[in-house]
Amino acid sequence: MALKIRKEILNLGVYKAGKPISEVKRELGLDDVIKLASNENPFGCSQKAKDALRGIVDESYMYPDAGNFQLKSNIAEELNVRHEQVFCSTGSDALIKVICNTFIEEGDESIMAEITFPRYEASVKLMGGKCIKVPMKNNGLDIEEMVNCINEKTKIIWFCNPNNPTGTTFNKSEFNKVLSKIPDHVLIVMDEAYIEYVTSENFPDSLDYISDYPNMITLRTFSKAYGLASLRVGYGIASEELVGYFNRVIGPFDVNLYAQTAAALAIKDNEFLQMVYDKNKEGKEYLYNEFDSMGLEYAVSDANFVFVNVETDTVQLFDNLLKRGVIIRPGHLLGTPEWIRVSIGTMEQNKRFIKELKDIL
Ligand code: PMP
Questions:
Q1: Which of 55, 129, 319, 322 has the smallest set of CB atoms within 10 Å of its CB?
Q2: ipTM above 0.95, yes or no
């Protein structure tokens, strides 16, 4: 081919997302398939958001509000930050790329946990950056060691809290200990995609720190607890100055009308969020009990998924579960050959997963 593809693209692997239900039904000829592979919310989304969506179809011919005014206002009000501190795009996936576009130049270093959300690595590499991956400590982030890896070339340190795929969190005292050691030329990204599910006490909510650390950014999403994954909307909180730079990279109409409308209402529906939190906690405890009775080791999770050691080749297990209509995230896609990540579903889905897992193991 005469066209020259950038070497960063040639070196990048293709990201394998969770198989959609329709694909499994089509390929395996199954009627009844459940997906516990992408940490979606099986309880759907706020009724208020659903009702509003029906009413705006006729506005589809127009571009959405480029400033995301109502959405940003509601986020700012709900989280007690200033409107100017909020930035939005098509999922926090897109925001991770925006951050790397803004900060990473060829040869820059970026620090992340060895087992964490894979889009950090892809987005850093896309810009010609180098990833320093720090081994896990008891399935959690070794934040002390991560901070020890900082040098003058370090541009970004990624803290995924709760961490995907392990579900683990670090606490306030661990965080306070390392924070003062992070120099201010390093951007601290706090990815809190699952914060609404956190059950642990002493969790360090990054919004409590952000005004003291102008080099810190919070990333959150409407794809998980808010149940709007398909609409693709994520947001970040940062200093007004940083938001100004990010807004040079983010496209004016990235967040569509449906996403803006639904998310603006979803963030205000605390009753829905509480229901989701309670049901998730109940499902998590059910899974823990079942894993305990099966003698399977798991990581204690603050998210809507559990990382569990199935002590077998997970490629095979994944295929076997798939044939029985259950999609999970296998270890070979996570870099953990004997561990799988299973999203917490409705109780009916959790029971079905456990039944099939017991049958196979
Ligand atoms: N961060 C983490 C830790 C995630 O697990 C995910 C989704 N799996 C994302 C960010 C991206 O979510 P979205 O693009 O749907 O907002």
A1: 55
A2: yes
